[in-house]
Amino acid sequence: MIKNDLFLRALKGETVTRPPVWMMRQAGRYLPEFMELKNKYDFFTRCQTPELASEITVQPIRRYGMDAAILFSDILVIPQAMNIDVEMKPNFGPYLPNPIRNEADLANVIVPDIQDSLGYVLDAIKMTKEKLNNEIPLIGFAGSPWTILCYCVQGQGSKNFDLAKGLCFSDPKTAHALLQKITDTTIAYLKEKVKAGCNAIQVFDSWGGMLSPVDYQEFSMQYMQQIVDALKDEIPVILFGKGCWFALNDMAKSGASALGVDWTCSPKNARYLSGGQITLQGNFDPSRLLSPPAAIKKMVKQMIDEFGKDRYIVNLGHGILPNIPIENAGAFIEAVKEYSA
Ligand code: CP3
Known about the structure:
Blueprint: H1 6-12, H2 32-40, H3 43-48, H4 50-64, E1 69-70, H5 77-81, E2 87-89, E3 93-95, H6 103-106, H7 114-132, E4 138-143, H8 145-154, H9 162-170, H10 172-196, E5 200-205, H11 213-231, E6 237-241, H12 248-252, E7 258-261, H13 267-273, E8 279-284, H14 293-307, E9 312-316, H15 326-337
Parallel strand pairs: 1-4, 4-5, 5-6, 6-7, 7-8, 8-9
Antiparallel strand pairs: 2-3
Coproporphyrinogen III binds next to strand 3.
């Protein structure tokens, strides 16, 4: 039904002529057409207005023709729906003025009705699916419960998320209760996203690498496992953990269809750690898009050769940076489309 199904075939582990390609945070500040809308509408207006969210989602597709689109939204719409205030401050990032620091704070956190509180995301999905016209698949996403807890407790971005880890280690009961509420909300949310038309789901564990391997099991993996268990029979799930090479083995056994890898783990090591069977996605250093286009193309070809063209989705190792020249991003996509072994 979807004309370009390279991405879905790679998720199933089927043999392909070339690997599919998309870029994490592909709708973003490196695109002039994105900046035009960003200058006119604040962040949550862009997220909450289906016309804007769907337009921003298809902007990079129009320019570059990636093999998958990812819905323009944010992982922090989940805490917002759970009755936690979330602001996006210009030149600062996420700011949560009333963070969750103890059992009393947790009492105000709800598991919301998805249609009531996040219906705008579902409308944006439906509108985006119309605009995509079955040309390519649409990826829906959520943050991992651990990564969402990081923001809910810390109240903002952080180099070490000391307050978030502090809650986990000093008051694990409250931390686990918060993680479970986030997990329940996320599962209900992702199930609605599937119904609205998403073709794959990615879970972003952006701050998983802050945890030791043992703590990762307790505070992140067991909750992502609940999400995979709830979704895997309905839709392919991709787990991306930044700095989480140590968890690739457990993730490979989770029932997920693919695993994201960052650039600190070599393709060979990633294949070894994940057991050699599961589809991998990544892992170009986002800063390497600052190299000249010819060098980017050479490095992309080499990366595909190292991962192998099958069971592989070309991507960056994390989100694209705002200072990437548009022609360099173009060279990255072109290199994949021109690939032949
Ligand atoms: O990938 C895409 O193109 C879809 C859109 C998308 C956004 N956020 C839009 C956005 C996705 C998938 C996200 C996920 C997200 N949001 C993550 C996980 C991925 C990752 O990068 O690790 C995280 C940790 C967040 C939280 C968040 N949102 C931060 C830390 C920031 C500020 C940093 C920044 O890049 O400015 C945001 C804001 C945000 N989310 C922007 C965009 C395009 C930039 C601000 C703006 O457009 O006004």
